[in-house]
Amino acid sequence: MFIYELLTLHQPFEGHESVKECILEGGRPPLTIRETQQPSYIIDLMVLCWAQQPKDRPSASQLVSIASAPEFTHLYDVLPLEAAGGPVLCACPAPLSLFPPAGSCEESSELWLGRGAGRVDMLVASREGHGFVQYSTLPSPHCTVPTAATPIGPCIWIGDAIGHVHGLLASDCSPVFSYALGSGCVRTIVELKGLGRVVVGMSDGSVFLVRSDSLPSSPTRGEGSFVIARLHSGATALHTLVAVGSDHTKECELWCGESKGNISIYRICDGMVTSQEIVNHCEPIIERLEVLHLVSACSASADSDEEASVWSYVYPGCVVYHWEAKTRTILNRLDCSKLVPCSESLKSISIEEHLSPGRCQVTSMAIIGSEELYIGTTWGCVIIAERRSMRPITVFRPYEEEVRVIAQLSHPSSQESCPLIATVGRGYRSLMSRYTDFALPSTPDDAPLDERGEGAKRCSSYVLLWSAGEQWAPL
């Protein structure tokens, strides 16, 4: 009832005459729609505390453990994804929705998810932190399996598994263009705003520089009019690439993650490649090392004094590297195998069984805001670190298995005081279930079982909506 008063600023059962009889019959004080739009775990804890049977209520020590967990005040919503869509292969935060859901006057943000079954799902989240308000499947973009997506102007560009790039209008999802770049899988699509260009990286190592101000009129034969240049011939496999530099200048660098631990760096000036060099994570070079993830910190203005930085992850391994882009040197390292999730009880974690280097490999990375680096691992952990020093801020494990996506729902350059973050992973682990034996159910009782008989909770993908505006509880 104390939590109820904190949330509502009202006394429980105000104006109710037969309070005792109401409680004995299972009645509880009502919540308005606005009052239910608080952080998810606060509502869950309140409901647990007023369980009808005293044995079903958490103890004082459990209350302290739950309320002091780093994610307690940050999680706003949990959404299970339809299993028929297949695994999530890519994600794209869309511009602020121009057409909010029916009956809503709030600003909203969209998250487009490319699924393994060849479809694109769209989630709409309230900008006020009220959770997801819409989940729908978009009309087919005529792609096989979407593997990369990014917002380009008023459109969302989607790359697929057979080398095609499709443009959909973000406002109504109508098709704008479709173009066949090659036969390999599209790994990544990056916009170079200062140049009016877009870079498309393919799995065979090809890197194409295309125009964003002149869309193709046909699905092929766009060389010169749409395709400006082919930066890389495809001698080695390409896994990822990022642009390094200000959005306000005509110069930038492309850092391309390749095999053998190599990063190829292309310098582009006025739409032309002026130089190329290769840096490596190891000396001497080690075979069978793959640079799977790269993220960069975009400068907010052209006259920013901050040196550009890049963060990389090499598979197999557990280490995230922080590079200074100007000097091509590694400044800091973070070994994810040395970090243990903090919001766990003795019954919910087994360090000897699970915390091995193979379970601490990195599956996703993102720069959120101006100070924090977010890292997802194969064990379902989310690691938050200071991006400059790589000092861990906190670690928690909201998923059973790998964290596939970490995305900021608004544009990274926006000056929001409370940005929203979406994570996608397999098997949701409720904070309540980690400390109690009577936590609220997170899946329906009739949910299908997986091959191990452990239910849809473990095998399904979940999208979690977080608020990053408040400081995370430190380790």
In short:
The protein has 475 residues and is mainly β.
Please give a structural write-up:
This is LRRK2 beta-propeller domain-containing protein. InterPro entries: Beta-prop_LRRK2, Kinase-like_dom_sf, WD40_repeat_dom_sf. Residues 317-430 form the LRRK2 beta-propeller domain. It comes from Ladona fulva (Scarce chaser dragonfly). By secondary structure, this protein is mainly β. The protein is built from 7 helices and 28 strands. The chain has helices at 2-8, 19-24, 40-49, 60-67, 351-354, 431-435, 456-459, and strands at residues 75-80, 88-94, 108-115, 120-126, 132-137, 146-152, 155-160, 164-169, 175-180, 186-192, 197-202, 206-211, 227-233, 238-244, 251-258, 262-269, 272-280, 290-296, 309-315, 319-324, 329-335, 362-368, 372-377, 382-386, 392-396, 403-408, 420-426, 461-467. Strands 1-28-27-26 form a 4-stranded antiparallel beta sheet. A 4-stranded antiparallel beta sheet has the order 2-3-4-5, with no helix packed on it. Strands 6-7-8-9 form a 4-stranded antiparallel beta sheet, with no helix packed on it. It starts with a helix and ends in an 8-residue tail after the last strand.
Properties at a glance:
Beta-prop_LRRK2; WD40_repeat_dom_sf; Kinase-like_dom_sf; single chain; LRRK2 beta-propeller domain-containing protein; 475 residues; mainly beta; 7 helices
Number of helices: 7
Separation, N- and C-terminal Cα atoms = 30 Å
Across the major sheet, the strand order is: 1-28-27-26
Model regions low in confidence, pLDDT < 50 over at least 5 residues = 441-457
Number of strands: 28
The average pLDDT value, as a whole number, equals 81
Any idea what the radius of gyration is? 24 Å
